[in-house]
Design goal:
It contains 8 helices and no strands. The protein is mostly helical. The protein is globular, with a radius of gyration of 18 Å.
Length: 174
């Protein structure tokens, strides 16, 4: 679900770069920083795709199909809880995040920002506890930023900000 959304927004080539880079970085960095971890690279690669979606949400303030948002929110919240070794709380929190996505569906910009925010918080938490999915989320975000043309990175976001009032000489206040 997340993979299809990334492919539609970034294209096949960039999708492959995000997926492979996040998977390989997840394995390499986690093995180096936390040699006791035995996580696989495929879930770190999927985390990278979700990280790329978070960048897209913030950069464009656009919405995604509801299934992609549901999966992204659940993945980030559930795996953060799993990282703290509490599967029941992780499941309940993951399901609550999905309920929040459904509740916010009528407000797509708010939903996009909340989903991106949850993903960023999950990334920080997972990095702090040494979870490979945090490395995947971070790698996906960094690669997505690097793959976007600089002038378009936050153009939609900046355009949505309210216009500042003009100063006394007719210029912008400052």
């Amino acid at each position: 679900v997340a993979g299809a959304a990334v492919e539609q927004r970034y294209g096949r080539g960039r999708w492959l770069v995000v997926y492979l880079t996040a998977g390989i970085a997840g394995i390499m960095l986690t093995s180096w920083w936390f040699p006791h971890q035995t996580d696989s690279g495929s879930s770190a690669a999927v985390a990278g795709l979700i990280g790329a979606l978070a960048v897209h949400l913030v950069a464009t303030r656009a919405s995604l199909p509801t299934p992609a948002l549901l999966y992204s929110a659940f993945f980030a919240v559930y795996l953060t809880g799993e990282g703290f070794h509490d599967p029941v709380t992780a499941l309940v929190a993951g399901l609550a995040s999905m309920a929040a996505v459904v509740a916010l569906r009528a407000r797509p910009v708010v939903l996009s920002m909340v989903t991106a925010g949850v993903t960023i918080v999950a990334m920080v938490a997972m990095l702090a506890i040494g979870d490979v999915h945090g490395v995947g989320l971070a790698t996906g975000m960094v690669v997505a930023i690097l793959l976007r043309p600089p002038r378009t990175l936050f153009a939609a976001w900046a355009a949505s900000l309210p216009e500042r009032p003009a100063g006394p000489e007719g210029g912008r206040a400052g």
